[in-house]
Specification:
heterotrimer; A alpha+beta (972); B alpha+beta (223); C mainly beta (102); A: alpha+beta; Ubiquitin-like (UB roll); FAD/NAD(P)-binding domain; 6 domains; seven-stranded mixed sheet; 48 strands; 28% strand; elongated; B: alpha+beta; Alpha-Beta Plaits; 2 domains; five-stranded antiparallel sheet; 19% helix; Sarcosine oxidase subunit delta (chain C); SoxD (chain C)
Chain lengths: 972, 223, 102
């Protein structure tokens, strides 16, 4: 087992040295401490090689130590592509490397690097795009080589969820800018949410050195945290990633297994900036890392990043890094400054005073690897002679650590999602953000402010601006902060004739790959991205966007502002599908009788968000159950739960006038105590719903609607009356009533036992009448309906009585052998009667003429919704019509949607389609409804239907209904 | 087992099957869960309670407000506000001209029955069907905004949603009316939802409450 | 997610609302030409600028009107429909004497 040797406190902010942790990496045991990331624990044991690169399988090690690069992607048992510099070590954790052939240390695919000149940028695209079919041959091989990580197919889902968080101000990032902004806002009385990606607050204060003495950051952080952590108005989320910005400050923040949906009146993004690498040959070797990665290793984890370092820098921060390294006992061979002079003489002198060689106007031209490219061994340093060019004389420094800092790129992703625009300042060689939406502000280094005291002021400035819109500013005026510090070197790109000068580590893209893309005509940075894949890897251009913009601008003679960066889209960092999919709400509705159906063994089916019994019995016995239930209704008595049927009440002096305007039929003179069929067309003249209108009183209608259509019908009614201003009250009473249809020759006998206060005689309660009374003491509305074509009663009761109604009907019906039937059976029964179901037998074009519903349209009234369109359409030659058809028993049964053809020729046109089709035991043949061409409607004629497998069957057009043509049974 | 079961009445709560451990008592001709294994302390911590059988009523129309005033009920000044009577009834104003009256736990909803006995004004006041169209579920305890934040996108923290506030909004993706009130100083969010979705909401709320130690309570836990 | 200020319920997530199309004047359905009617039913101006739209707050069943800029998606104003629709609408009456009364 490898053991950790660590630096002394106060190094190691994140680790608890009293709690050692053992884990495995690539089969070997390692030890770290609680609080260590996998990468820091491994580095503490001298293990630097963490992964192999995507394309060339080059060894890679820690680059940012902040979860910002793809070098640290590793495999856990249950999860691929985990960031080793984010994921904490735990006892017994079994970690594997990814993307290698053989072993991580001896990857046989590393040979691919030698073929890189045969795999130029766009290689896959260009090689396999043509000829047609080439991709099919190569796909398997390429996929095997290309994928990252292994999925655990036995993975058990875990509980992920979501919650809203509401605050006046959300501050993204808890560096000095974020902390000062949060404090300022909270002190003024705003409720503040502070979101930090790292496990501790402080941002750069936790690792960066701001002064020669190295004291400022710690002291400041201590002071700020003491105020923030105690503050009643500040809620803190650490280890939490703000992964997007959506309109009106709606921010998804992922912490652990929860996604917070944060809604804030004001948003201050103090997301800081990403330190940028220098492009030179072999800049990807393990041991070469951002300056901030080296200081993070020391300050966060007390890990020595190396023994002998070279610092390559384009700003003064590199000097401070050198001082930090020296303080921790690391030899610094040289500070290589790409600029001609340091900005601060004091800082440069302090480094020189420690005996470190400082070379200004120089760069690292090439890093020299150990065998197999496993680690940096030395660097070749040369004088910069011109933009991107170096002298031929070289100096070599042996080292096992190279810290680099070419400057910074604002963490712009959230802000560009919000519509912010990036502008490149040629003098500062830096991108800045503008055109942010109101109520979104930026502070600190993301705002181009870098000096520590300026950063603190900038945080306060942003907070004061936010407080103004919140009305909490108390007259305080926000003062613009001016920071003169330059942190970016303008051309930290040193192409090497032998390549391996990486611009994008994730995708193994070298400087020449980007330039070549522009030479092939891909001038737009978006096209360069798609062609070369730059920025498409897990780090999403955090380090490649800036050098790519510079290279493309240079190669195409444009400014960097004109070139820009590719579009930033959420999520900012990779998120699991579980975070998006976790605890999704999928509402269901149950009728009052739901549990009775389950107890009776119903096969349930969804109808919208309702659950309804399809039939009672085993799923595999569908047809037998359905036919038995149907025969029972035809011969005895059945009962079906129709509670899901929509119900709308219209009350008031204008109720009848309103009905008359909404539905196609005439309702002004509908008698009280009678029902009437109600068809609804939309303004296009298309049939969109139907139901039964009951007139309870002169000014009181109760109208049913389809299960799936009622919500829309109700909304449309409300909208129409917002315009018409009729004196009518409209209420959706769907859930207020439970209902059954008691149907069959014996239904009257059952009801007679229960409804003693209603005259149930055929004369007293005839077909299509409406009555009110009591059923076993339950107040009920009764409708004599004929949907299934038998003597029948719809019984509507207040829904809290629904289950009791079901129970008393079952009990009273026992002596008549009552049996429940389901929706599928009902569909068969109504099909036998030729009754349409709107939305099953209609589509987005069905006008009343096609459905033979002319009888249900009143031409005598001045208006109904859709009237004018119906008139126009009906005056045109018709093209299709819904007809009934039969097929002999035993014929291959057409399904809904099967096509009706103009003839049996192979070149026949499609003239229509089947909408309903079942075998009917009562009729003894297959029956159905289908749209057919207008020339195919003659009763007795045949038309072809193409069924499964391409077979064609010949259906015969018949008169409707199929069963009981005189409709005698329902009128009994 | 208590002698009273939900199925001994023809009126039944929409969620009575979720209350199998309850001791029931008769309320308005139906069974209401009076006691569960968790009592008053659970109500203070995090409780969920089914009040669906407790009487409630509603009126809509230009004369609805005056109808309530005639019944001596306090009419809230603005939509989405609730007032409470001395007896404990809640009067909800859902729009300019729509009002709901929710019965008091203390008198088993007798006050609402009295309102329903009164004749409606001749015009412009229509009785609503909220006893049947809606279920009445009440969350209680110290974590109401945090529990609701897991199912609802409206800020229900006390600063934004003080006692007497109403929100008509989706919760767990179904439409609800949420009322912030107190019963015997216990913080309550009463929720009125589509009665057909009551079991769904019940299960969703129990799931959301789990991390706060939420449990089912009976009406006696409120006193 | 965008916030919609509802005249009845205050600012809410726009997912609580249902879009109801532009507010448009219906031509007189008995006197307008087929073309006018077809344009009313099928055509949309789809203009870049401020449009007046119907929106429904689903949870409270409340229809209102919003003025929205289709380019910036800014919601400029929302209000009750009674601001526009002030009076009862009548349709020109024809004879209803022969209406069936079955």
């Amino acid at each position: 087992m490898s053991h950790a040797t660590r630096l002394k406190a106060p190094m190691g902010l994140l680790i608890d040295r009293t709690k050692p942790v053992s884990f495995k990496f690539d089969g070997k045991s390692y030890q770290g401490f609680q609080g260590d990331s996998i990468a820091s624990a491994l580095a503490g044991c001298g293990r630097w090689l963490l992964s192999r690169s995507f394309k060339y399988h080059r060894p890679r090690g820690p680059l940012t130590m902040a979860g910002q690069d793809a070098n640290t992607l590793i495999q856990l048992n249950k999860e691929p592509n985990v960031l080793a510099d984010r994921e904490l070590v735990a006892n017994g954790l079994d970690v594997q490397g990814q993307n290698y052939n053989g072993s991580l240390d001896g990857d046989r695919d590393a040979i691919l690097g030698h073929f890189s000149r045969f795999m130029p940028v766009g290689f896959y695209y260009r090689s396999f795009f043509k000829p047609l079919g080439a991709w099919d041959k190569w796909e398997g091989f390429i996929r095997k080589k290309a994928g990252l990580g292994v999925l655990d197919l036995d993975f058990q889902p875990e509980y992920y969820d979501k919650a809203y968080l509401f605050h006046d101000v959300v501050v993204v990032g808890s560096g000095p800018a974020g902390l000062s902004a949060a404090l300022k806002a909270a002190n003024a009385g705003a409720s503040v949410l502070l979101v930090e990606e790292q496990p501790i607050l402080g941002g750069s204060l936790t690792y960066n050195r701001f002064d020669v003495e190295g004291e400022q950051a710690d002291q400041l952080r201590e002071d700020l945290l003491a105020s923030v952590e105690q503050h009643a108005n500040i809620e803190v989320l650490t280890s939490a990633a703000c992964n997007g910005w959506f309109a009106d400050n709606y921010l998804p923040v992922i912490q652990g297994k929860r996604m917070y949906k944060v809604r804030a009146k004001e948003c201050i993004v103090a997301s800081g900036s990403f330190e940028q690498h220098v492009v030179f040959r072999n800049n990807d070797l393990p041991g070469i890392m951002m300056s901030s990665a080296a200081t993070r290793l020391m300050k966060h984890y007390a890990v020595k990043p190396g023994n002998r370092a070279v610092v390559l820098t384009g700003n003064d921060d590199g000097y401070l890094t050198a001082l930090e390294l020296l303080d921790q006992g690391i030899e610094v061979a040289a500070v290589v400054d790409m600029r001609n002079a340091a900005e601060s003489d004091a800082i440069a002198s302090a480094v020189k005073a420690r005996g470190v060689e400082v070379l200004t106007g120089h760069t690292v031209y090439e890093a020299i690897p150990t065998r197999g490219n496993k680690h940096v061994r030395a660097v070749d340093v040369r004088r910069i002679t011109a933009k991107g060019e170096v002298a031929s004389q070289s100096q070599r420094f042996d080292c096992d650590l190279l810290c680099m800092s070419a400057g910074y790129m604002p963490v712009y992703q959230l802000l560009c999602q919000a519509g912010g625009q990036l502008k490149y300042d040629d003098t500062a060689a830096e991108f800045s953000l503008s055109k942010l939406p109101k109520n979104l502000r930026i502070a600190g280094s993301v705002n181009g402010v870098h000096g520590l005291s300026e950063v603190l002021h900038d945080g306060e400035r942003a907070a004061i601006e936010a407080l103004h819109t919140l009305g909490l500013a108390n007259g305080e005026v926000a003062v613009e902060v001016n920071c003169k510090r330059r942190v970016n070197f303008d051309w930290p790109i040193f192409s090497h004739p032998k390549g391996k000068d990486f611009v994008d580590y994730d995708e193994d893209l070298q400087a020449k790959d980007i330039v070549n893309a522009t030479r092939l005509g891909y001038r737009d940075v978006q096209l360069v991205k798609r062609f070369s894949t730059v920025g498409m890897g897990p780090s999403q251009g955090r380090h490649s966007a800036l050098p790519t913009a510079r290279l493309v601008a240079d190669a195409t003679d444009r400014t960097v502002t004109e070139t820009g960066v590719t579009t930033a889209r959420p999520p900012f960092s990779p998120e699991k599908l579980a975070h998006v999919a976790g605890r999704i709400f999928d509402p269901y509705r149950r009728t009052a009788m739901h549990h009775r159906h389950k107890e009776l063994g119903a096969k349930m089916m969804p109808a919208g968000n309702w659950q309804r019994p399809a039939f009672y019995g085993k799923p595999e016995e569908r047809d037998a159950c359905m036919h038995a239930e149907a025969e029972h209704v035809r011969n005895k008595v059945g009962v079906i739960d129709v509670s899901t049927l929509g119900g709308i009440e219209l009350r008031g002096p204008d109720a009848a006038e309103f009905m008359n305007r909404i539905y196609t039929f005439a309702f002004l003179k509908q008698p009280v105590g009678k029902t009437r069929y109600a068809v609804l067309t939309n303004e296009h003249g298309v049939v969109i719903d139907d139901g039964v209108s009951c007139r309870l009183a002169d000014e009181h209608f109760y109208v049913t609607a389809t299960t799936s259509g009622v919500e829309r019908v109700y909304r449309e009614m409300m909208k129409w009356n917002a315009q018409w201003r009729l004196d009518v009250d409209i209420t959706n009473v769907t859930s207020a009533f439970a209902a059954v249809n008691l149907a069959g020759p014996d239904s009257r006998k059952v009801l007679e036992k229960l409804a003693t206060d209603i005259d149930l005689s055929p004369e007293g309660f005839p077909y299509l009448a409406y009555r009110e009374g009591h059923v076993a003491g339950i107040p009920a509305r009764l409708l004599r309906v004929g949907f299934v074509g038998e003597l029948g009663y719809e019984i509507h009761v207040p829904s809290r009585f629904g289950e009791a109604l079901w129970d008393v009907l079952q009990e009273a019906g026992k002596e008549f052998d009552i049996r429940p039937f389901g929706v599928e059976t009902q569909r068969l029964l109504r099909l036998e009667k030729g009754h349409i179901i709107v939305s099953q037998d209609t589509d987005g074009m069905s006008h009343p003429g096609e459905l033979s519903l002319e009888w249900a349209i009143s031409r005598k009234k001045p208006f109904f919704v859709g009237r004018r369109s119906v008139d126009i359409v009906m005056a045109q030659p018709q093209t299709r019509k819904l007809v009934g058809f039969t097929l002999p028993k035993g014929t291959k049964k057409p399904e809904e949607g099967h096509l009706v053809l103009s003839s049996s020729d192979s070149s026949a046109d499609i003239t229509g389609n089947v909408t309903s089709c079942e075998y009917s035991p009562s009729v003894g043949s297959i029956i159905g409804l289908a749209y057919v061409g207008i020339k195919q409607i003659e009763v007795g004629s045949q038309f072809p239907i193409r069924v499964d497998g391409g077979d064609v069957v010949q259906a015969t057009v018949v008169d409707l209904p199929f069963f009981d043509p005189d409709n005698a049974r329902q009128a009994l | 087992m208590s002698a009273i079961t939900p199925e001994s009445f023809s009126k039944r709560s929409f969620v009575y099957r979720q209350l199998s451990d309850a001791e029931f008592s008769e309320v308005a001709g139906a069974a209401q869960a009076a006691d569960m294994k968790n009592g008053h302390s659970q109500a203070l911590k995090a409780g969920i309670l089914d009040l669906s059988v407790l009487p409630r009523t509603g009126f809509r129309g230009l004369n609805a407000a005056s109808h309530l005033q005639a019944a001596d009920l306090p009419v809230p000044a603005k939509p989405n506000q609730a007032s409470v009577t001395d007896n404990g009834e809640l009067v909800l104003r859902l729009s300019q001209k729509e009002f709901w009256v929710l019965g008091a736990v203390a008198d088993l909803g007798a006050g609402v029955d009295a309102v329903n006995q009164r004749g409606l004004p001749e015009k412009d006041c229509y009785a609503l069907y909220n006893q049947d169209s809606h279920a009445w579920l009440t969350l209680t305890g110290a974590h109401l905004p945090a529990i609701m934040a897991k199912v609802c996108g409206v800020d229900l923290r006390a600063e934004a949603f003080p006692v007497g506030s109403i929100a008509q909004t989706p919760a767990a993706r179904i439409n609800v009316v949420v009322v912030h009130h107190q019963i015997n100083e216990i913080p309550c969010f009463s929720m009125l939802c589509d009665s057909a979705a009551a079991e769904y909401l019940w299960v969703s709320l129990l799931d959301a409450m789990a991390e706060f130690g939420g449990e089912v309570i009976g009406s006696n836990a409120l006193s | 997610m965008k916030i919609m200020p509802c005249p009845l319920n205050g600012p809410r997530n726009i997912s609580e609302f249902v879009h109801g199309g532009e507010v448009r004047d219906m031509p007189n359905p008995t006197t307008c030409s087929d073309k006018e009617w077809a344009e009313y039913v099928f055509y949309s101006d789809n203009q870049a600028g401020v449009v007046t739209e119907w929106w429904l707050h689903a949870a409270s069943g409340y229809w209102f009107i919003a003025e929205r800029h289709t380019v910036t998606d800014e919601i400029i104003r929302t209000y009750d429909p009674s601001e526009i629709f002030k009076a009862r609408v009548e349709f020109s009456a024809e004879s209803t004497a022969q209406e069936v009364s079955a």
